[in-house]
Design brief:
This protein is mostly helical. The protein has one domain (19-72). It is built from 2 helices and no strands. The mean pLDDT is 84.
Length: 76
């Protein structure tokens, strides 16, 4: 019955949800893959022997970390 349940506090328990870890992992991998592929395409276009791919991976990793911090915040 609905009256038998104890009410939960509005702020939650303060623990991260299970999906937040998967979200963080998806941001990191997605950033690496997308920007790495963009860098690879630039390498093919300019014939730079992997330089743009490395820069793309670095930018993708940094962007992924930025999105994780912005979306999930810092732990308290």
């Amino acid at each position: 019955m609905t009256g038998d349940q104890t009410p939960q506090p509005p702020g939650g328990s303060g623990t991260p949800e299970a999906g937040e870890g998967w979200t963080a992992l998806a941001y990191l991998i997605g950033g690496l893959v997308v920007w790495g592929c963009i860098g690879w395409l630039v390498d093919q276009w300019l014939d730079t022997d992997g330089l743009a791919t490395g820069i793309g991976f670095l930018l993708g990793g940094a962007g992924g970390v930025y999105l994780v911090i912005r979306r999930l915040g810092t732990p308290s």
